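Loading example: each entry is read as two labelled lines plus one structure line.
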Amino acid sequence: MKDPYEIYILEPERISFSRGPGGVFQGVVDGKEYEEIIVHRAFPFLYTTQFISVRDAKEEEIGVIRDIAQLDEESRTEMERELQFRYFLPRVTRVDSVKHRTDLWIWELQTNLGPTRLVMRNLHEHMQFPGGSRIVLTDMNGKRCEIGDWKALDSHSRKQLRDVV
Amino acid sequence: MPILDQLPGAIRSALPAEPLFSARTDLLNDGLFGEQWLTVTETEITVWNVSGSPLTTIAVEELKDARAVSGIGGGTLLADTASGPVVVVRYTAALTSIFGFAAKLLSSIAKGEERPTLSEKELPQQCPKCRNPLQEGTQTCPVCKNNGKVILRMLGYAKPYKLQMAAAAIMLIITTLVELIPPYLTKVILDDVLQPKNTGSKLMWIVIGLAATSVTMAVMQTLRGLIGVWVGSKLMGDLRRDIYDALMRLSLAFFDRRQTSQFIGRVNSDSEAMRQFMTDGIIWVTGESLKMIAIFAIMFNLSWKLTLLALLPMPLMVVFSLTLWPMIGRRWYQQWRSIFRLNVLVGDSLQGIRVVKAFGQESTEISRYQAANQDVVRNNIRIEGLWQGMFPLFSLVAGAGTLLIWYYGGWSVLKGEISIGLLIALITYLGMLLGPLQWVSQMINWASHAISAADRVFEIMDTPSEVPDTRDPAVIGRVKGAVQFSNVTYGYEKHHPVLKNIDLNVAEGEMIGLVGHSGAGKSTFINMICRFYDTDTGHITIDGVDLRNISQTDLRKQIGVVLQETFLFDGTIAENIAYSKPDATPEEIMRAAKIANAHDFIVRLPDGYDTRVGERGHRLSGGEKQRVSIARAIIHDPRILILDEATASVDTETERQIQEAISRLVKGRTTFAIAHRLSTLRNANRLVVLERGKIVEVGTHEDLLEKEGIYFKLVEAQKEMSQIKGVESA
């Protein structure tokens, strides 16, 4: 019997994940099959591949994975993909431009998922600094991008960022 | 059915008929940015790539249900089919609303229910011209908007003072013209008096002329300064008033999403920046540009060749200004943001000072502050440094013109082409030109500072209230208090409804107890009655009049609230009780306090009803504050009363007193009460049990106990708890 007030850590050898024919993330946990599994990062900023809360389609927690590196290869790949889908947070690889047009700040960005554009009403409510040189950008519609370490970007990007960070 | 974006021709021609619905996604199914199209017809759901070839097709008869599963920053449209769930499309958060609608539509098709219609709220708000997102509730695109409008709008504030401003301007013109006289007089002295050794009375007269100009200038400058101060202070006052008005007018939803301490800085510093621009800035600009024109005119008259020489460095300065302008604006904003972060930090830790002290975290707070402080210092150095560097540079460039005149002008004098007086006059005029030119950069500074401040200020003013007052409100007078909810759905974020399809009919004078787990939607329920938020679908009526048709002032007159967190304003107890009725007599105040069981403890206070409460004043206990707030509700004499966990966190005796007070208060009023202690709701005529935003049970205490449903379980659970407590205290 599970203690309902204890975090249930899933043993890596007792779980496996895959993708169903319809493209939905699914898996087997402790011998039980789940047609649809939802994953949450417990610490989306700090630990992106650790402490993953695994939930069924009704969002009831099945358990927590300590580190997805412990999973077998297929499970890990699918888990990583699923996390990327659910936490849509493209990583910025280059900042093409940051322009200020009257009331809007328009960011033209290159990300690991392709080029995109963010539009913000102002900077002070749409830029977060979770620590170090990381920046999380959120646009007016809730679309987000992440800059891992702005000081590590190329010089053009750094130049664009210097006056807005 | 509405079609949002024009479906590409290739896809349209591949379809047998006009689709029921089509929409463009902004992600590919592997999560990369890209475009796909979703079309829905009576028989199938198809996803297309941009070139018009189908990627996935799901037959409608296989479809069982559809859902929009929202992730963070994006979402997925899922179809439940006979063979399990299928990912239809993925999209970023920008398109959440439209695919939320798609899910509703697909679900209704699958289940054969009535199909939903697309409401305006579900369309992505985009400017048709530039595809940039629009603010909710506005149709003007900020990007396509005219840039000069901010300045014009700012100047609108100066309008009421146009007379004074005109007077200042006239004085400015006079000063400027007078200022131009001395160099000319110098020329005359040199050429007509000193060189020809003219010993007549001419020298005397010229010196008197010089003295007269000095006196006129001093007088004019003083007067203008006084007018400037007067207009400036008035302007500041007007601006502050408007910002505060705008803040008060905004709906609760606006404040839910923001830290409130930021507004303190905005109201004060942003209005100051705008004031500076409008009074000092505008006056200087007009004055200095006037001066420039006049100087050029005189110089050209004296010697156009030399003047042209002096003008050579000008283009360089213009280029300088143009490149530096945007950079300075950004750095000002950066500086503002770092101060803003610092203020938020201070506000936060001071508000939570008890927690800081209790956990002994003073040193952590100090180091957090230190880090933010360093940021401010760094940005300050950057902007001020840039500024300090610019000034000498400008002088240097402008000075180059003087050197040219000295050289070529000197030659001309030697060759006898012009007189010494003329050369000296030219050089003096050119020196005077330097001033205005330096002001160009100061002006850049002021203007960009002011425009960014104005941007932020107008942002607040332009945010439309999410609960707008109707233009033509119904006259309701004193209502009876019958409240009706018809099919009300509401979510703080549109796609996570907190209340779902609520139907409830409350007769006048009835007391309704709202029961449910935390997060069931109880507080949202009462927020809807106060119209802090507007329903997404359905409507609420009071005496048969839709809430939206009642002006908010009228509505609030009818509604009284006693909230979980009692908030007393800075002021005396009497003022707090009479908050909604400032003209209440002392007797009325005492009567209200008596009914609220507050009279006795108030009188026992050394300062009685004049005791100062609020942030700095006398500190009342939780139960005492609670009773003062009940008295406040009593004096308001509302027809509809809302009690939100009024007895939370007080001891049993105080609870009894509050209970008593409340039972007197609810008499004859329609009441909605939330309480965790179910015993306190025993007097309610009906109990409404909410679970996950839906009404699951309605009935009296006894009815519901008999039913042995959710309410029964809640009561049992509480009994158990109180037994445990009983054992502990025994």
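The radius of gyration of chain B is 36 Å.
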